[in-house]
Write a structure and sequence with these properties.
Blueprint: H1 2-8, H2 12-17, E1 21-26, E2 39-48, E3 54-57, H3 58-61, E4 65-68, H4 96-99, E5 113-118, E6 138-147
Antiparallel strand pairs: 1-5, 2-3, 2-4, 2-6, 5-6
Length: about 160
């Protein structure tokens, strides 16, 4: 345990200095909000904070990304066996915040929008990843399009 504390203690300032910022850009009232374990459909647009350059967007494909919230199934960027990249946002296991990108969408109503700003400490760090330069802060504009088995409230 002492060894673990010795190794992790120097990283504490970095962990405390950076955080994922969540901006609630559109909120609705509803009877059922997204929960861990829900299969959701989410539109997103990923841009670089530095220059606003878009690196991926489900809107461009005309189809929201579907995944189960809380399973760490989102964020990765690679093409699968010669097929066009289905979504930039897929699974990533080597960075905690991106691995838990989906958990930033908990408690949303269908139609809600959030803007997630992810600093490099919680993103790809000092590694380049496809169109994303090393050290980049990532911005994701997200919109919850649906929750499987849940009807949108009509107010």
């Amino acid at each position: 345990m002492r060894l673990l504390n010795f190794l992790l203690l120097p990283l504490l300032p970095f962990a405390l200095a950076a955080e994922v910022n969540i901006e609630y850009t559109l909120t609705n009232e509803c009877s059922r909000k997204s929960q861990r374990g829900d299969t959701v459909q989410v539109h997103y647009r990923g841009t670089l904070e530095s220059d606003g350059k878009e690196f991926d967007a489900s809107y461009n494909r005309g189809q929201p990304l579907e995944f189960t919230v809380g399973k760490g199934m989102v964020i990765k960027g690679s093409k699968a066996k010669g097929k066009p990249e289905k979504a930039f946002v897929r699974s990533l296991t080597d960075h905690w915040a991106l691995h838990r990108w989906d958990e930033n969408l908990l408690g949303m109503c269908i139609g809600d929008k959030r803007k997630l700003t992810i600093p490099p400490e919680f993103g790809y760090g000092q590694r380049a990843m496809g169109a994303i330069p090393a050290g980049s802060t990532l911005v994701f504009e997200t919109e919850l399009m649906g929750i499987q088995g849940v009807e949108k409230d009509e107010l």
